[in-house]
Amino acid sequence: MVKINSTKAKSLLMSVFRYAFLIGLIFTILYPQLNKVIIAFRSQADLVDSSIIFFPKHFSIASFQESAENLEYFPTLFRTILICTVSGILHVASCTLTAYSIAKFEFKLKKFIYALIILTFLVPPTLISLPLYTNFQNFDIFGIIEAITGSPLTLLDNPISIFLLYATANCLKSGLFIFLLIQFFKNMPRVLDEAAEVDGATNAQIFIKLALPAARTMLVTVFLFTFVWQWTDTYYTSMFFNEFTVMSSALMKSVSGSIERTFVESSQLSSAGSVLFVIPIIILYVICNKAFVQSIENSGIVG
């Protein structure tokens, strides 16, 4: 009887500890975000009212209106959605083709190329930032463009620079996605390919009609993560874009442009801009929630 009570007590204690830990973790993650939302909805009078701890006495959307005006919100929003969508599609195509080729075919230097893909996990992005910037500042293909036009192209302040990185699987997380897709295609039963070959299917038909449908959840993973990472990216956008603005760079410029205001006013505008910045990502998650969760479970990223 004592042993049973001791076991129940330990189980109860572990449950209490587990829930306390989860509640604390959720609070730590959500509180800064909720605090930004509450600050953004405060009126000017509430900003200087020391009696207000959390919820404002007078709700106001003036900070959202001013922040949206500073961000040029809707033109920048549509521009960013377009860039993230195209980037996601290009990234899915480049990573899938690369991974399928390595997983299913034998060719010279295959192991060497695979080793280079793994090596991208270890190379800091800043190590290649200068060569990337120089290449896009004076972009040319074996001197062909300069021979025709007399000078190389400048792809800075042009979304084509970002598109080229995704189309060639040369972005920050490309190596990770290629690695995951390689493991997925390797684990596909070889008998399926052999059965398709017996039926007269070509390699292209096997890839399109067999491999791609089977890898649908993985492709959703690549697209969604690429979309979100490009949305929140400040590394490439600050490197390649100056006049051309997307949501992340517009938010940074808006924050830096509010230094003439008081600290409290600047903080409120920054909070309002952050809320406007994250709303489209929340909407995307709500719409793609089921596919997003299934894709993560099947990708092997967690668990």
Task: Note down, in words, how this protein is organized.
The chain is 73% helix and 0% strand. The protein has a single domain, classed as MetI-like (MetI-like fold, Orthogonal Bundle), CATH 1.10.3720.10. Helix 1 packs across helix 15, helix 3 packs across helix 15 and helix 12 crosses helix 16. The relative contact order is 0.12. The protein is globular, with a radius of gyration of 25 Å. The chain has 303 residues and is mostly helical. The model has no long low-confidence stretch (mean pLDDT 82). The longest helix is centred in the N-terminal third of the chain and has 39 residues.
Give a short overview.
This protein has 303 residues and is mostly helical. Helices cover 73% and strands 0% of the residues. It has one domain: MetI-like (MetI-like fold).
Inertia-based shape: globular
DSSP strand tally = 0
N-to-C span: 37 Å
Task: Give the mean pLDDT.
Answer: 82
Low-confidence stretches: none
Tell me the CATH superfamily.
Answer: MetI-like
Total number of helices: 16
